[in-house]
Amino acid sequence: MEKRFLNKIALITGSTEGIGFSIAQRLGREGAKVVICSRKQEKVTKAVEQLKVENLDCLGVVCHVGIEDDRRNLIEKTIEKYGGIDILVCNVAVNPHHGNIFEIDERQWDKIFDINVKSTFLLIKQAIPFLKQRKDSNVLIISSIAGYYPSQIIAPYSISKTPLIGMTKAMGPACAELGIRVNCIAPGVIKTKFSKAFWYDEPIYNDCFMKRVGYSDEVAATAAFLCSNDASYITGETIICAGGANARL
Ligand SMILES: NC(=O)c1ccc[n+]([C@@H]2O[C@H](COP(=O)([O-])OP(=O)(O)OC[C@H]3O[C@@H](n4cnc5c(N)ncnc54)[C@H](OP(=O)(O)O)[C@@H]3O)[C@@H](O)[C@H]2O)c1
């Protein structure tokens, strides 16, 4: 495998399983020092062990991205151990509500927007002073095809994924001035715990050209491309990684 991230430090949120873990693994395999995090210590410990089996250089930190002190601690621990941040991947999202959009309560609505949108922006803002010190640094946000074409059964979550596409575009010029590229991935149905309802019993392929679910390592390969210098003239963009599923032209 190519080593596009030698001497790079990558911080990936929500990375003890699923897409975030695969991104950490991929960037690590390509030479990055990786910082992984999630809310539960046991999951952090297990994920670090898995990465260390492959001799990957990594640090695990417990962090709830919705908590300001946790975000600050995550960045501090990264700087303490590795001395900088080259790549920030904002991957966390929650979805506490399934069903009719009008049955959601205010607490669930706030949770979705606090975690999926607000904490994504705040973590990027907190990391900018460190990212701007590095050469060829990158921010990557994980949205969803639901951000383009809302799914009825997870409508509030879908709505929360649209601003991430706008945020990527909106932050592009300010990031470019600092030498930072910012991009986004909109995955389709990827086989993880989060999306079990879409693939467990009867897989829902919607209009997916490839008539199959995607896998975390396929999103991770897209993430590695966007964060590498192979994508050196790409910023403010969202790449759909969805096997051709209906999203946009
Ligand atoms: N899977 C799909 O089909 C699909 C499709 C489109 C987009 N996406 C997007 O891809 C991203 C990852 O999804 P996934 O399917 O990989 O999810 P997943 O398998 O459920 O993994 C979620 C990860 O995030 C952590 N996490 C959850 N809440 C957190 C918080 N508040 N602070 C820190 N860490 C937190 C979890 O660990 P803890 O429980 O220990 O916190 C876990 O490591 C999300 O943004 C999702 O919207 C997924």
Automatic annotation (TrEMBL):
It comes from the Eukaryota. InterPro entries: NAD(P)-bd_dom_sf (IPR036291), SDR_fam (IPR002347). Pfam families: adh_short_C2. One of its GO terms (molecular function) is carbonyl reductase (NADPH) activity. Belongs to the short-chain dehydrogenases/reductases (SDR) family. This is Dehydrogenase/reductase SDR family member 4. It comes from Brachionus calyciflorus.
